[in-house]
Each structure stands twice: as C-alpha cells, then as structure tokens.
Amino acid sequence: MKIKYILDSSSGLTEEQANAYGWELLPLQANIDEKSYSIGKDLNLQDFSKIWKENPKCIVKTSCSLPGDAQKIIDKYLDEYDKIVIYTISKELSSQYQMLKTIYADNKKIYIIESKKLSYLLIRDILLFQEALNEGQSFDKATKIFNQENAKLLLIPEFNDALVKGGRLTKPAAAMARLFRIVPIIQFKEGSLIKYGLGHVFRKTLIKQALDIVKDYKKITDDDYFLIINADNKNIKEIALEIKNAINFKEIYVIDLSVDITIHTGIGAICLTLENIPASIKDKFFKFATKY
C-alpha cells in the first residue's frame, strides 16, 4: 500500500523538515498584528521569536488551516497514493481535526487520525506506525499506536504574558506571580492542557520537575530519553546542561516547540518529558534535535 503522511504544524516541523521525512506539512494559521502567516511554511519558531522580542505586546491568534489551502495540499496526492494519513493537533485544542473530518467524510482514501497529541508525539507515532506496517502489521492493527498514552509531559512558561492573553491566567494572578516569582506548571494529558501545580522561580522549577519526572517514571531502559521541548529560550544550553547534570543522564535532547503552542505559552517556555524512543526509530526521531 502506498501511503502519504501529512502532519500539521503542531508537530513542530517546518515544511522543509516534513519533506525530509518524505511527509507533507499542513500549516495552521497565525495572525500577528493583522498579518496572516502559514505556520511552518512562512513562519518558524525563530521568526516568531524575533517578532515577539521586538514587540512583546503584539496581538497574536492561531486558527485552523484554511479549508481551501488544506484541500489543495491533500487533494494533489489522491491519484498517486492508495491512502493518505493525516495527523493533526489534538482535537481537544483545536477544531482542525473536525474540519478535515467533515471535508473528507465520504473519502475512504483519507484516514484522519482522531488526535489527542501534539508536538514530537505526532512524529514519534508516525515513525512507529510506518515501522509496524513495514513489519507486516495490518493497517487497522497499526492504528492502535495512535491511541497509546504519552508519558508525563509538563509545560513550564518562563513568562506569563501569553497565558494572560489567552485567558489561562488573570492579570491580578499574573501580577502576584511576578511579585512572588511563582511559576505555573501545566500538564498535557489526554489531549488537553490542564493545571498541574505551581513552582517557585523558573529555573528551580525546571530542575525539581525534571527530577520528579525521572523519579516517578517506570523502570528506565536504554530506549528512554529525557526530552526538553524548547520555545526558543535564550538560555537553553545552560538549562539543558543543568537538567542533564541534575538527573544524571549521559545525554538529553532538545527539540523545538511548535509555533502554534509557543504562541499560547510564550517565548521561553520549556516542556519536560521522559519518553520511550525505540532504537529502530531513534535516528529518524532525533533528526532535527540537539543533543547535550
């Protein structure tokens, strides 16, 4: 079976990076001060970081892929491929999945994953899915990969501006947080971003949560890797090395956080997780990661 894989920009991939995997990118949209961008195509993480640093008060919104543009991207593969597999941002965070499901409701060639994931999890799942098919699993059996729960994933913003703009934090609460250096901790669980707890001082919170993730993890194997998903934090090298030494790992990896999520968490945010990456997909999975 000849399959084309299409991931949206919540995967954190740019168009060029998706193409390097042999995949296609479906950009979500960003509107910054009334100018529209296709995320991953004409707006990457570094581009957004530059815009935000020049004007932290810029008005930013995200939205689904434009239906017409999405159809152009998807429909061009209909004749050449037996199946088109589309993986979107979690349906709990966006209407992207539902929009595509509605458009292609009667097209049996197109399989739209009922996503409850985002970021590196989309990449990991597709690599595992491809491997399962190559090993002879049926398409239907292999799709169970998409239903597997991800490991504990925490998001820790460095600044609260984006949380206030998005309504996740009130202005008075943000003012109190700045005064007492309180850090909100958010967990990505079952497809949603939920309140997890509070920390005190950003860097101290990162270290404490990293240590807790390692302590609470099931038995660590050679295929388990500590990942930092980074929203262009200016101190990422120091942070990565500090966490690596604190948890006593030989190596850890840093991956870019997608622009779609960064817009809502703010530049500087850090996500932490300890995830199983089988040796068979390790090189492909870490293709665009930085090792420390």
Quick gist of this model?
This protein has 292 residues and is α/β, with parallel strands linked by helices. It has twelve helices and 14 strands.
What report would you give on this structure?
The chain has helices spanning 15-20, 45-54, 67-75, 96-103, 120-134, 139-142, 161-165, 171-180, 202-216, 236-247, 259-265, 279-285, and strands at residues 3-8, 24-26, 29-32, 35-38, 60-63, 83-87, 110-112, 153-156, 182-189, 192-200, 224-230, 253-256, 270-276, 290-291. With 292 residues, the protein is an alpha/beta fold. The strands form three sheets. It has a seven-stranded mixed beta sheet. Strands 2-1-6-7 form a four-stranded parallel beta sheet, sandwiched between helices. Helix 5 (120-134) crosses helix 12 and helix 9 (202-216) packs parallel to helix 10. The longest helix has 15 residues, at 120-134. The protein is globular, with a radius of gyration of 19 Å. The relative contact order is 0.15. This is DegV family EDD domain-containing protein. Keywords: Lipid-binding. It comes from Metamycoplasma faucium.
- Please indicate the percent range of residues in DSSP E strands (runs of 2 or more): 15-25%
Number of helices: 12
Task: Please bin the fraction of helical residues.
Answer: 25-40%
Extended strand count: 14
Class of secondary structure makeup: alpha/beta
Strand order within the widest beta sheet: 10-9-8-13-11-12-14
Mean pLDDT: 92
The rough form would be described as: globular
Roughly how many Å apart are the termini? 39 Å
Q: Indicate the low-confidence ranges by residue numbers.
A: none
Largest sheet: 7 strands, mixed
Could you give the order of the helices and strands? Answer: EHEEEHEHEHEHHEHHEEHEHEHEHE
Rg, please? 19 Å
